[in-house]
Automatic annotation (TrEMBL):
This is Cyclic nucleotide-binding domain-containing protein. It comes from the Bacteria. Pfam families: cNMP_binding. SMART domains: cNMP. InterPro entries: cNMP-bd_dom, cNMP-bd_dom_sf, RmlC-like_jellyroll. Signal peptide: none annotated. Gene3D superfamilies: Jelly Rolls. Residues 25-145 form the Cyclic nucleotide-binding domain. Transmembrane segments: none annotated.
């Protein structure tokens, strides 16, 4: 049954909702829940080789990739190791959902141009304060992603047993 009091959204808002729902962190949110983020999202354009953030920087924003490709790497002792590339509908800086977190990898644009929606951590956490359901849904999505990372880590460890001391991950 049609609810005449239900909020209606314009075409631009609906496009942003559809886009956000393709990103894992936002996939379980309703349009009404996604609407809470609209005032805080801003679209930023990056150029090739531009740094989005470095490892150990404060994690102060979440990035949702609309267009382009970003390389994730880690630098230790002046040696950089490539981790993966991410692109459209994927997010960067997922740990911005965690207060006082630091970046765990470098993020550098590898495509000619990249466009990302940026959601500042302060605004993200303010939405969480106002709506516990949104917070719960997004933390559940984050937990699922982190669980998959752990599964992948253990598979990598098993395939190269003894390459590193896995017990250090639990300290």
């Amino acid at each position: 049954m049609l609810n005449p009091f239900r909020k209606s959204y314009n075409a631009e808002e609906l496009d942003i909702f559809r886009f956000l729902q393709k990103a894992t962190l936002f996939s379980e949110l309703t349009q009404d829940e996604l609407y809470n983020f609209l005032p805080y999202l801003y679209l930023r354009q990056y150029k090739e080789n531009e740094v989005v953030f470095f490892r150990n920087d404060p994690s102060q924003a979440l990035y949702i990739i609309q267009k382009g490709q970003i390389s994730l790497s880690i630098t230790l002792s002046d040696k950089t190791e490539y981790l993966t590339s991410v692109s459209t509908h994927q997010t960067l800086g997922d740990n911005s959902l965690i207060p006082n977190a630091k970046r765990i990898y470098n993020a550098i644009v590898t495509s000619e141009v990249a466009e990302m929606y940026v959601l500042p951590q302060a605004n993200l956490l303010a939405v969480f304060e106002r709506d516990a359901r949104i917070k719960a849904k997004m933390y559940a999505a984050l937990s699922t992603s982190y669980n998959q990372y752990m599964v992948n880590l253990f598979k990598a460890y098993q395939s190269s047993f003894g390459f590193f001391d896995l017990s250090t991950a639990y300290k």
